Amino acid sequence: MATTTRFGVSMEQELLRSFDRLIARKGYDNRSEAVRDIVREKLVEESASSPDDHVYAALVYMYDHHQRNLEKSLSSLQHDYVHSIISTTHVHVDHDHCLEVVLLHDTVRTVTQLADRLLSIKGVQHGKLTVTSPVSHPAHHHHHKHTYR
Fold first, then answer.
1. Are 88 and 101 in contact (CB under 8 A)?
2. d(Cα 18, Cα 106) in Å, to the nearest integer?
3. What is the pTM of this model?
4. CATH number of the domain at 54-132, out of 3.30.930.10, 3.40.50.300, 3.30.70.1150, 3.30.1330.30?
5. pLDDT tens across 55-70, in order?
């Protein structure tokens, strides 16, 4: 287990009040865990700063399945990125709308390119790409096989 180090943070009262409201709304037990999560989030953002860095990502989008040829276009595009896509989950939201979640593993450049191309297709109503990677990149030592590749 890692050693914990205490340190102090100074900030304006109104900023602290806003922060306290945020952590209460999010359900944190204390400020320390909220600060740790913010630091981790920023480190993840910064760790994938190069377009050639390998990352994991989730592309979530909603579309109108009545849009002519849309499902064919989406499927064709996903087949263009078959080596980047780990899995896809499809949900029928209502009579007109579908939600898909595409899990990806590739370079920042590739997952961003896929997201940009997919989200710009007519009939895709909205979506978001969330990119993540380990905060640190220790040597990859463990004793199980990856079954998705």
1. yes
2. 37
3. 0.70
4. 3.30.70.1150
5. 999 999 999 999 999 9
